[in-house]
Amino acid sequence: MNRRDFLRLVAAAPVWGVPPVWSRQEKPVFGRTLLLLELNGGNDGINTLIPYRESTYYRQRPKLAVPVDQVLQLNERTGMHPALEPLMPLWDAGEMAWIQGLGYPQPNRSHFRSIAIWDSASASDEVKSEGWLSPVVKTLPLRDEKPLDGIVIGRNSGPLAGEGMR
């Protein structure tokens, strides 16, 4: 399954009568659910979260820039790509956040190493086999009726990697 098919599937879940995780009546242990969507590959970050008030964006991307009248405005400077419109209700309800402009010291330009750093929250000069969410999830109480802490769809467990994960 490719990324676009997956996003269409998730966006269409309410149409099929499948309640999305964020609208279930039952509350998780801490009253919240974290949905981490990691888009590996060729995601164009500057056209995902668009700096639509920056003239440089339009000057540097004369053919790729999303026209300002098509941008889904999040605030007075930044907006989402129009294909992300199914996410707007979450944004409007204050149930979604964006983290933008991340980096790490001394990057080596390796896409694979960067993914390993993000998945493990390691320093750029160390290698960890456990994902950054694993230590947190392992401290949560295991509920008999739902003995599952995370679901990973993809090639590797990423932030949920580690021994003893449920």
From TrEMBL:
Keywords: Signal. The keyword Signal applies. It comes from the Bacteria. InterPro entries: TAT_signal_bac_arc (IPR019546). NCBIfam families: TAT_signal_seq (TIGR01409). This is Twin-arginine translocation pathway signal sequence domain-containing protein. The lineage of its organism: Bacteria, Pseudomonadati, Pseudomonadota, Gammaproteobacteria, sulfur-oxidizing symbionts.
